[in-house]
Amino acid sequence: MAPCKRVPMFLILFILSITRVATTNAIASKVDRFVPQDNYLLSCGASAAVQVDDGRTFRSDPESVSFLSTPTDIKIAAKASLASASPLSPLYLDARVFSDISTYSFFISQPGRHWIRLYFLPITDSQYNLTTATFSVSTDSMVLLHDFSFIASPPNPVFREYLVSAQGDNLKIIFTPKKNSIAFINAIEVVSAPPSLIPNTTTRMGPQDQFDISNNALQVVYRLNMGGALVTSFNDTLGRTWQPDAPFLKLEAAAEAAWVPPRTIKYPDDKTLTPLIAPASIYSTAQQMASTNITNARFNITWQMVAEPGFRYLIRLHFSDIVSKTLNSLYFNVYINGMMAVANLDLSSLTMGLAVAYYKDLIAESSSIINSTLLVQVGPNTIDSGDPNAILNGLEIMKISNEASSLDGLFSPKTSSEVSKTTLTGIAFALAATAALAVVICYRRNRKPEWQRTNSFHSWFLPLNSSSSFMSSCSRLSRNRFGSTRTKSGFSSVFASSAYGLGRYFTFVEIQKATKNFEEKGVIGVGGFGKVYLGATEDGTQLAIKRGNPSSDQGMNEFLTEIQMLSKLRHRHLVSLIGCCDENNEMILVYEFMSNGPLRDHLYGDTNIKPISWKQRLEVCIGAAKGLHYLHTGSAQGIIHRDVKTTNILLDENFVAKVADFGLSKDAPSLEQTHVSTAVKGSFGYLDPEYFRRQQLTDKSDVYSFGVVLFEVLCARPAINPALPRDQVNLAEWARTWHRKGELGKIIDPNIAGQIRSDSLEMFAEAAEKCLADYGVDRPTMGDVLWKLEFALQLQEKGDVVDGTSDGIAMKSLEVTNVDSMEKSGSANPDYYLMLGGKYHKPSITASMQLGEVQHPQAYKRVYGMIKALSIDQS
């Protein structure tokens, strides 16, 4: 018998790869192809029909011209040399150009969700420069693109994919060029989607309730095949393309691809999930945790995507257990932006088998999108199930249209009736403006010469101490129906004029000089409003100059709020507004410069800055608490900051803390109200979970955020760190766990670990812990928090270390600072002070010692209650 010859390994791998591709194609061919009721495929501007790789044929322009209504007939084609050599799809080689509003209309035979797929590429033409085109695209009820243009040079093809709800028998796609510009389109698809593809309601993260999306449009932002290759419309009966996930893996070494033959994938017998949801080629590949044979290996696989803020997102997760050898051996968690999305996912109990397709839909709220980032993570749970592992087979992320019926900003589609209303409103406004101008002229003629020298109407438009209702009316007058205060040329000067009276009025020339004409190296901060520049006056006084971005609606809303709030606020621990400028359609606010920057920089992150001491940290926290306490109690109604975090606590040259950034602030509820109902806003990791669940805002939401700040000060780490193991991602949860175990000292910042007295630490930690209570009613007021922090500082400065095992007392008399000022502000806590003869009196420690019972500072309140009961005056 002849000996067997060894087959080279490269040949085996080659044969396996061919078999894998062949199997995938075979499975795809066996799947019943979806036949849409409506199937419009147009190659716009093409002289002949175009067939693409998956076998579909796009109609030529002459065949599709009946769908188009346009005042001009402009078609262009790529040069023959480019067309013959181009690797691009032939759909990008021709285009229709529109110089005015133009509409494609499609008859809809089956109402329901329809795909709209748009293809754009600015091909070269001698007459029309498509690279400079700026235009909007909408249906009759939904904005798809607003002021769309090409930025990249040379331009790359752009493909946009939408799912819209077509309820009538006609669906319109409207192209609207910007003034003095053009619009264009290369190809269009309008195709029926399977009714079962997208449910009417979906589970929302956070509140865990059902959210109705039946009337919302969706934009496909990402469609990823985990651990697998590119899947094109050739292998997807719905014409979808699935990208490889590798470019989005945050740490490729954490993931390991898994694969099984697609023929092994099974779909549920009840037909609730079919290959229309996702083909077998998606479920047959996955990413799993790398090095799963390492005992107790616990980490997450993380995918990081860019997401546009201000929108909700539908996240569809595809799973199939292709890595386990037996049932009930795979349990894992799924996280979205650090939040638990699916806990203890057990595919075995859900599918009753291995390699069975399963998917899960979730909605991520707009408030969870931080820094334009969307993180999807899978990792093992805490159940002891052998080797920890986690998988993900496929991922789809779809943007959900907002309340303005838009998928691109806050610009609603205009119907004809709205246009007519707008016209009438414009006429009425013009008449009103004329009348107002006449009044102004008369007023100015009779005004004193000193007023004329200011060259401004600001001082009587809005006085410094104007009521919030008057400010609101000014805001409403200047805003358009989208909440924006922009004009075609920039910011509305009507709105900007309302800022006068908030200090010095700067000319734009002065601002340019102070910032060296907005020199880029002078930028010290960037936000939704625009940029913050370091500036200086002629006498050398340094300023922080916030320049509004005219393209940011979010920034304008925050400017409005900040002006409204700062017109009512003056306090040593709040950043002061020095003045403003509203010339040349600019919107600029000028603040005192805080030379030591945000508190966060002095805790971690900037290796060039020496971390501040424990005593300094206590003083900073006390200052911030005083500022927040003033916000909550300093006016009749009170103000809720809504974005308390370490980057919004700034330090001056003497390390005095001042609370900044009031762009998200809201008036507190009136006496007749328990809360303010409002959309959730704030910073992830600092958000009050009760506010997030119920969308009901109270001052206790600030208290929760401040509790996170306190632990951040103690531990010197971010509020959310997705790169850490699951149980350490959320600082608030992690720190509370260690505090309850009595081992908080193990997670303290090493830079201050040896500086803290145990009693001071316990008082500080108790304050932070109480701030983080699950329900607002169980949290202290900022006045209570302030008292505890001052107590912690006094213990640090004056108190001896208290040995919890000692029977003696080593506690000195403690004095609370500014008792009289606390009495006037109402912040003194009656649990700690006696009201005798109209004055607050603090019992001396001597009287407490005579009563006994004092073993620890925590017992102080209890002893004081006994003193109060005995009516002992220890003044």
From TrEMBL:
It is a single-pass membrane protein. The keyword Transmembrane applies. Gene3D superfamilies: Galactose-binding lectin, Phosphorylase Kinase, domain 1, Transferase(Phosphotransferase) domain 1. Keywords: ATP-binding, Glycoprotein, Kinase, Membrane, Nucleotide-binding, Serine/threonine-protein kinase, Signal, Transferase, Transmembrane, Transmembrane helix. Pfam families: Malectin_like, PK_Tyr_Ser-Thr. Residues 518-792 form the Protein kinase domain. It is found in: Membrane. Residues 1-23 form the signal peptide. ATP binds at K546. PROSITE patterns: PROTEIN_KINASE_ATP, PROTEIN_KINASE_DOM, PROTEIN_KINASE_ST. The keyword Ribonucleoprotein does not apply. It comes from the Eukaryota. GO terms for cellular component: membrane. One of its GO terms (molecular function) is protein serine/threonine kinase activity. This is Protein kinase domain-containing protein.
